Structures are given as structure tokens and as C-alpha cells.
Automatic annotation (TrEMBL), chain A:
Organism: Catellatospora bangladeshensis
Record function comment: Part of the binding-protein-dependent transport system for phosphate; probably responsible for the translocation of the substrate across the membrane.
Family: Belongs to the binding-protein-dependent transport system permease family. CysTW subfamily.
One term of GO molecular function: phosphate transmembrane transporter activity
Protein name per UniProt: Phosphate transport system permease protein
Encoding gene, per UniProt annotation: pstC
Any Pfam family the entry gives: BPD_transp_1
Location, primary (coarse class): membrane
Domain (ABC transmembrane type-1): residue spans on this chain: 84-312
TrEMBL record, chain B:
Protein name: Phosphate-binding protein
Originating species: Catellatospora bangladeshensis
Recorded GO MF terms: phosphate ion binding
Keyword match Signal: yes
Cited InterPro entries: ABC_phos-bd_PstS, PBP_domain, Phosphate-bind_PstS
Length: 328, 357
């Protein structure tokens, strides 16, 4: 009887080993697939964009996809600086506005809010994350932009004479479709992402650390500053980077509210353009080098996103070492 | 819409073709039946046609396809409004059976010369729409228009505008210029018009996208431009007639080649087509056309069909569809604010189909 049992176990073990190998193969393949897909995207897009890569592409602020004088010295010129500038400015505004708000909400939810209210707010924020970006864009052009234009005018009237602020908040566009509007819309879009990740990170702070802070007589803010924030710095930076990535790649909402003017200006109340926005706007009727230039801008966006993610890793690692060193 | 006209024709067609249809439907692929497409009427046609291209005639083509469904229920036609550039590319690589294009084919478009034919379908006026309190009948000449869109004129009471509008009190409102942010055949035709009618003033050239001055604003599609014009007092922009009418915009009268100020209407567009010189391949340029009634900013649009279809069945389907579009949908076109071809050009367009082999 025992003999029969053993043989049955052996067969089962054998089958188990096969399944194990299969599982291993599937996992490795899935892991490699990500890398392969990324590499292939980069290779094919660079290949497609190659005709457009010239000195002008990276240094010129002119975007003249047609040929104004037929045989022209003036065109076509595919300079991408103005779009790169717009993408960076708009994402910066979004992060500057969204980060304090998101961290505030996350701290409120984990440390202050009564449990009943907490569930409601979490649901509401998750709903905000589920709103499609085109809805934000339409809301931006139909509601926010016309309503906020007078506010811009007011800010300009107040700070217009101050040296640095005066150039940042210059004469506003009457339509309200500006860098600032696009940045604000993006801020609303990335707040749910940053908030929900930060909230989860704050929730992982060990209760013993907090209790220790309380026991030392810390106020609530001192407890947050001394126990919660150092422990969760890395995670919060990760959340911000995820938000930044979303902001840089956001296409339709930005295309609708940014105003579509090709220019580099310090005035945040002026119309501008962004990399994803020009790609989605002009792809349909593009051919030849023009199309290559648009794909090239996709490559630039791709590389920037990868660089920012790498930078974030470095920042997180350094911060963690420093924080641990300080607390030890 | 014009269901009455259609249903009468449907009745006649169905009665004749009912037998043929009944015979066909029992087979697996009715289109392989030699009786189909052999002149037994639209209802006997079956199969699938794929097309893509220009967005400017899209509203019209979609309505044509919808009304054709009543007559040829087994013929499935799809037209994707992806833009002329992509349309030509897809046509060139054999993905579609025919393409819609607002512009003629260039070497870089991916469609080899000699493999396709142009079939003009409709034309439409591009309006210069504006939003200026107290001014209802603005008149503009090509030079003034060029200066406005190049931002050389920045207020509505500039002497150039005043000279075009004798006796009208113009306010000192700032002009805000709206253009298309997306690459567009409308931009191409508008800038081509400026290059032709104001050659010394207009310096930005022509194309689906041009380098607009930085202090102008872009809107997405015709509706986006219409919305920008309405958003601010002092706004001006170019919008096709259908969207400008839907958006209840105010149109300026434009000075044509004969020196008359003409408002954008379908009659003005048809007059421009009649005044345009038609080339042998049936491409033509109705922009800035001669004739006292011609509206000068009139844009043509074409279908591109292959000279040779490897599949005889596809050939018949393409011919049937284009013939139907040219012959039977004139009322539909006018209803949707597109100008039908004048009789002479229509005959030529139909003759073009006989060259398909």
C-alpha cells in the first residue's frame, strides 16, 4: 500500500517540476517582454525619425513645416525647442501646484480625518482619477479658460511692475488659453495619483515611531515632521515622479487649453505649445520629413521621461540614505 | 433628410432587383455572382469598400454613405476622416480602395504618379468669420486679409480696413486672430488663396500648416476655430461654411478678382468652380477665380481612385459608389453646405470613371 502511495507522489512531483519550469519561463518572458518592447519602440521610432534629426531640430525655435517662398531658405524648418520649453513649463506648474495639495490631502486622510469622512474623500479622489482627460480639456476651454482670464488680468495688474513677477505674470491672453491654464488642468489631473500613492506610503509609517514622537511630547506637526515625513520621503518622491510623467505625456487636455502658439516666453499668461500637443494636432496631414520630425519629438519626449525616472531613483536612494543616517 | 427622393428611387430599384437579390442571397458570397454589378442596379451590389482621407468633405461623404445604405443594403462603405495626408498614404500602400484629398498628390505622398485618377466631388466656400460688436457687414480685400493674419494690422480701425469699408464706423478693438492648430486642407486652401491674391503682401507661404505669428492662437478643427472667434470681441478666423453656419458666426464679404465684394454662399462657390480653369487630369484651382459672382476662397476636394483595380468586383463597386455620389446626391450636398459641381465639370468627372480598368 505504501509503495503505491509513493509512486503516486513521485508522478505528482514530476508534474509539479514541469509546472514550475513553465511558470518560470512565463515569468521570465513577461519580464523580458517589457524590455524588448521598450527597446523596439525606441529603435523603430528613432529609425523613422532619423531624417529629421539635424542641428535645427534640437536648437531652433522656428517651426515652419511648409515652404513659404517655394524654393526657400526660410523653410521647412523643424525646430522643437519651443515645444520642449512648453512641456517643461506646463509640467513644472502642474507639479508645483499639485504636490503641496496632494500631500496635504494625504496627511489629512491618514492623520486627521475621522474614519467616516476618510472613506468618502478617498472615493471622491479615486473618481477624479477616473475622469477621461478629454473631459478635463473640454472643461478647460469651455469653463476654466474664460472664467480665469479676468483673474490673470487682476494678477497682472497687481504684480506687473515687480521685476521678476512682472515678466512671469505678464499681459494675459484674453482667451485664457495659456501655459498657466494648462498647468492648472494638469495639476487637477495628477492630484489623485500623487494623493493616493502618498496616502499609502504614509499609512506604512510604523505606529511605534509615531507613538514614540507623541511620548516625547511632540505636537501633531512635530510628529508628522519627525516621524511620518522622513520615513516616507522616498515613496512621496516616487509619487511625484509618477505624476510628473503623467503631466508630461498628457496630450488632449493640454492640446485643447494651451492655445497653440509656437513661442518661448517667460510670461505664463501667454499661449504656448507642448510636445504631445503638436504631435496630436499635426499628425493627420503630415508626410515625409514633417512626419519624421513629429516622430522625432515623440522620441525626445520618451527620452526625457526615462531620464526623469532615472533621476528620481537617484534622488530617492540618496534621500533614503540621508534620512536613515539622520534618524540613526 | 431627402428621404422622399431616395425612397422613390429605392422602390423602383428594389422592385427590379428583388429577384436578383433573392438569387444572390442563397449563395455564400453573392458578389462572386456574375449578375451582381452587371447593371442590375444599386440594390444588387454587395461587398465592402474602404476609404479614408480628407476631413473637410467628411460630413457630406458620411451622409452619402448613409443614404446609399437604403439603396444598396449589401454594400458596406466606410470612410475614415483621418486627414488628406494619412488618406493618401493609406491609399498608396493599398489599405484603402479610394481616398479623399483636398490637395493634389505630391511626390512625397507615397502615391506613385500614373496609378491614380482625380475625381472632383464637391467644393465649399471657406468663410472669413469675425466677431465685432456693431459691425455686421464687414468687407475685406485680399491684401487687408493678408495683413490681418500676419499681424501687421492689429486693431479694427486700421486705415486698410477702413478703406475696404467706406462709411462704416469701426471700433478700436484689438484684433485677435484664430487659425487651425491641426494640419488642415482648409489652412492649405486659405493660405493658397492669400498667396495667389495678395502675392506681394503674404509672406508665410501656403501649406497644411504654416508658421503663424506667435501672437495668434490655434484651435482644433473648424469648431475649435469657431469657438475661439466667438470667445473674444475682435476675433477673426477662417472656418468652412458648414461649421460657420452651425456656429451662427458672422461672415465678411471678400473682394474677388473682378473687384466685387461677395459673401460666402454655395452659389458663389459654384460660380467660382465655373470660373476656374480645369486641367486635363481634372484638378483645378477655384481660388481667386474670375467671375463677378465668384466667392474667391472656394476649396475643391477630390476622390483618388486607382487606374487599375486587380479585383474586378472592387472596380465595379468603386465606380458604382462614385457615380451615385456624383449623380444622385446634389440636394444632399447643398443641404450640408457643400456646393455641387457645375454640369460641365460633373460630366467630365463621370467620364473620368471610364478610364478605370
Amino acid at each position: 500500500m505504501t509503495v503505491v502511495d509513493k509512486s503516486a507522489q513521485l508522478t505528482r512531483k514530476d508534474r509539479g517540476r514541469h509546472a514550475d519550469r513553465l511558470f518560470w519561463a512565463v515569468c521570465v518572458f513577461a519580464g523580458l517582454a517589457v524590455l524588448i518592447i521598450l527597446a523596439l519602440i525606441l529603435v523603430t521610432t528613432v529609425n523613422e525619425a532619423f531624417p529629421a534629426f539635424s542641428a535645427d531640430f534640437f536648437t531652433s525655435t522656428d517651426w515652419i513645416p511648409n515652404d513659404p517662398d517655394g524654393d526657400g531658405p526660410r523653410g521647412p524648418v523643424y525646430g522643437t525647442l519651443a515645444f520642449l520649453y512648453g512641456t517643461l513649463v506646463v509640467s513644472a506648474i502642474a507639479v508645483v501646484v499639485a504636490v503641496p495639495v496632494s500631500i496635504g490631502i494625504a496627511l489629512f486622510l491618514t492623520e486627521l480625518a475621522p474614519p467616516k469622512l476618510r472613506a468618502t474623500i478617498v472615493t471622491l479622489i479615486d473618481m477624479l482619477a477616473a475622469v477621461p482627460s478629454v473631459v478635463f480639456g473640454l472643461w478647460g476651454i469651455l469653463v476654466l479658460a474664460p472664467a480665469i482670464a479676468p483673474v490673470y488680468q487682476g494678477i497682472h495688474d497687481v504684480v506687473g511692475g515687480v521685476p521678476v513677477l512682472g515678466s512671469l505674470f505678464g499681459e494675459p491672453r484674453s482667451s485664457g488659453r495659456t501655459f498657466m491654464t494648462a498647468g492648472l488642468i494638469l495639476a487637477v489631473m495628477i492630484i489623485p495619483i500623487i494623493t493616493s500613492i502618498s496616502r499609502e506610503v504614509f499609512a506604512t509609517v510604523p505606529d511605534s515611531d509615531k507613538q514614540a514622537a507623541w511620548a516625547l511630547g511632540a505636537t501633531r506637526w512635530e510628529m508628522i515632521k519627525g516621524a511620518v515625513l522622513p520615513h516616507s520621503f522616498g515613496g512621496v518622491v516616487g509619487a511625484v515622479i509618477l505624476g510628473l510623467g503623467r503631466a508630461m505625456g498628457e496630450t488632449i487636455a493640454v492640446a485643447l487649453v494651451i492655445g497653440s502658439s509656437v513661442q518661448i516666453t517667460a510670461n505664463l499668461f501667454e499661449s504656448g505649445y507642448a510636445l504631445p500637443a503638436i504631435i496630436v494636432d499635426q499628425w493627420g496631414e503630415s508626410t515625409g520629413d514633417f512626419r519624421a520630425a513629429l516622430i522625432g519629438m515623440g522620441v525626445v519626449l520618451f527620452i526625457i521621461t526615462v531620464l526623469i525616472n532615472l533621476l528620481a531613483r537617484v534622488v530617492v536612494r540618496r534621500a533614503e540614505i540621508r534620512m536613515k543616517g539622520a534618524s540613526a | 433628410m431627402n428621404r422622399n427622393v431616395l425612397s422613390r428611387r429605392v422602390l423602383a430599384g428594389v422592385a427590379i432587383a428583388a429577384l436578383a437579390l433573392a438569387g444572390c442571397s442563397s449563395k455564400e458570397d453573392p458578389a462572386t455572382d456574375p449578375s451582381a454589378g452587371a447593371g442590375s442596379g444599386l440594390a444588387a451590389l454587395s461587398g465592402e469598400l474602404k476609404a479614408s482621407g480628407a476631413s473637410f468633405p467628411n460630413t457630406y461623404y458620411q451622409e452619402v454613405i448613409t443614404s446609399l445604405k437604403d439603396e444598396a443594403p449589401n454594400l458596406k462603405v466606410t470612410y475614415n476622416s483621418v486627414g488628406s495626408g494619412t488618406g493618401k498614404k493609406e491609399f498608396g500602400s493599398g489599405l484603402t480602395d479610394f481616398a479623399g484629398s483636398d490637395s493634389t498628390v505630391k511626390d512625397t505622398d507615397g502615391v506613385p504618379a500614373g496609378t491614380f485618377l482625380y475625381v472632383p466631388t464637391v467644393a465649399a466656400p471657406i468663410t472669413i468669420s469675425y466677431n465685432l460688436k456693431g459691425v455686421d457687414n464687414l468687407q475685406l480685400s485680399a491684401d487687408t486679409l493678408a495683413k490681418i493674419f500676419q499681424r501687421e494690422i492689429k486693431t479694427w480701425n486700421a486705415p486698410e480696413i477702413a478703406a475696404d469699408n467706406p462709411g462704416v464706423t469701426l471700433p478700436a478693438t484689438a484684433i485677435s486672430v484664430a487659425h487651425r492648430a491641426d494640419g488642415s486642407g482648409t489652412t492649405n486652401n486659405f493660405t493658397k488663396y492669400l498667396a495667389a491674391a495678395a502675392p506681394t503682401t503674404w509672406k508665410l507661404g501656403s501649406g497644411d500648416t504654416v508658421a503663424w505669428p506667435a501672437d495668434t492662437q490655434g484651435g482644433q478643427k473648424n469648431t475649435g476655430v469657431a469657438q475661439l472667434i466667438q470667445a473674444a470681441d475682435g476675433g477673426i478666423g477662417y472656418v468652412d461654411l458648414a461649421d460657420a453656419t452651425d456656429g451662427k458666426l458672422t461672415f465678411a464679404a471678400i473682394k474677388n478678382k473682378d473687384g466685387k465684394f461677395v459673401k460666402p454662399t454655395l452659389e458663389g462657390a459654384t460660380a467660382a468652380l465655373a470660373g476656374a480653369e480645369i486641367k486635363d487630369d481634372l484638378t483645378f484651382n477655384p481660388l481667386n477665380a474670375a467671375g463677378a459672382d465668384s466667392y474667391p476662397i472656394t476649396a475643391p476636394t477630390y476622390l483618388l481612385v486607382k487606374t487599375t483595380y486587380t479585383d474586378a468586383k472592387q472596380k465595379e463597386l468603386v465606380k458604382a459608389f462614385v457615380t451615385y455620389l456624383l449623380k444622385d446626391t446634389k440636394d444632399l450636398a447643398a443641404e450640408l453646405h457643400y456646393a455641387p459641381l457645375p454640369a460641365e465639370l460633373q460630366t467630365k468627372a463621370l467620364a473620368q470613371l471610364d478610364k478605370i480598368s
